[in-house]
């Protein structure tokens, strides 16, 4: 096989990998009036790992208006949120090692960003997943759907 063909195939493979990785990175904003910038977060089912970034676009500190993002089965949102309130700020308002949680970020304040890389292999394209902020009083309002799409 000529060198030019090998190089072309190599560059094509690299460009596909870059595109696939870009599809597996999502970002969402949260503000001081307890709103996420989107009600739906979705990634292709082909993403085995996802990088999720949360940007707090407000100005208030984490202790008074902090936000994080947590992904769990929709049926577990209330239980995870309630358990998280007693876990406290130092645990990002999540019960430590909670196996109901697929992904979570730390609680951040205005002007801060945080990211988490998580594995989707335990999730199903037909699963019902919710993302929410576990800060006390926020989880009932700050919610959206997380989807694996084909």
Automatic annotation (TrEMBL):
- Ranges where the Blue (type 1) copper domain occurs: 23-148
Q: Which GO terms describe its molecular function?
A: copper ion binding; electron transfer activity
What do the Gene Ontology cellular component annotations say?
periplasmic space
Gene3D superfamilies noted in UniProt: Cupredoxins - blue copper proteins (2.60.40.420)
Native source organism of the sequence: Vibrio sagamiensis NBRC 104589
Which CDD domains does this UniProt record tie to the protein?
Azurin
Descriptive protein name: Azurin
* Job description of the protein: Transfers electrons from cytochrome c551 to cytochrome oxidase.
Keywords linked to the UniProt accession: Copper, Electron transport, Metal-binding, Periplasm, Transport
Q: Which SUPFAM superfamilies does the entry mention?
A: Cupredoxins
What is the annotated localization of this protein?
Periplasm
Q: Does the keyword Secreted apply?
A: no
């Amino acid at each position: 096989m000529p060198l030019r063909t090998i190089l072309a195939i190599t560059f094509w493979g690299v460009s596909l990998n870059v595109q696939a990785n870009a599809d597996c990175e999502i970002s969402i904003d949260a503000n001081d009036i307890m709103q996420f910038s989107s009600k739906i977060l979705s990634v292709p089912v082909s993403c085995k790992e996802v990088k999720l970034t949360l940007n707090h676009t407000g100005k208030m500190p984490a202790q008074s208006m902090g936000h994080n993002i947590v992904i769990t089965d929709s049926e577990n949102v209330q239980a995870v949120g309630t358990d998280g309130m007693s876990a406290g700020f130092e645990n990002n308002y999540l019960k430590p090692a909670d196996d109901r949680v697929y992904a979570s970020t730390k609680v951040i304040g205005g002007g801060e960003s945080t990211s988490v890389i998580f594995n989707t292999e335990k999730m199903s394209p037909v699963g019902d997943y919710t993302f929410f902020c576990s800060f006390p009083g926020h989880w009932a309002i700050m919610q959206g759907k997380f989807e694996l799409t084909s």
